[in-house]
Amino acid sequence: MQTFAPIRPFVSNPDFAAQRRAALSGLAEAEIDAPIAGIIAALNRLPHCFTLQCCYGHFLYPGQADEHNLDPLPQGAEGIAQVKYRIAYVALCLDQGPAGRGLLADLGRITQLDPGNIQLCSADWFWQRQVNSFALQLEPERHKHRDTAMIPYSEAVYLEGLRKRLWAALAALLNR
Fold it and tell me: pTM for the complete prediction?
């Protein structure tokens, strides 16, 4: 699936409040990856935001085929040359007012943790369903258009640490 498209400009969305209510009433909290459940809840408490989808980011490798695996990568690379990485991201819809624009700017600053691996974007398939939708994603630049990628084990170890920093930065932003 293609995940990346350049940031689109905000458009008028007079139905934002109704769309937010509908999205939050249909939210399946049990489907949210446990490590980010609090972050997603905090985003959804903001009156100028609601989440559309999210994923903590998962690593699959020989011996670990669970698509929703939350376990850390095994220490050492014995027999693991390549890892299938499932993108870490949060897709959200923002109100076009000052608070939504401010949150978008704050999310953009999070990309500075590692601009080669963290992107703030729009995704066409989200925008077609919900205007003013954006995604903060952790995916190597060369794979930024995809939701999964095969990467070397050493890069997976790096992304695992960066994933922790990304979610911590988003949590810190929401705790301000």
Answer: 0.94
